[in-house]
Amino acid sequence: MKRFFVTALVALAVSPRALAQAFLNNCTWQTAMLVDSYLGAYCNNDNWEIYSYDWTWFDTSYCLMNSGGQLAPASNGDYWRTCKGCSIRASKTEFVINCTCLTSSYKLTTATYDLTNVRLVHQQIESSGIMTVSWDALNTSATGP
Question: Strand 119-121 relative to strand 21-22: parallel, antiparallel, unpaired?
Answer without folding.
Answer: antiparallel
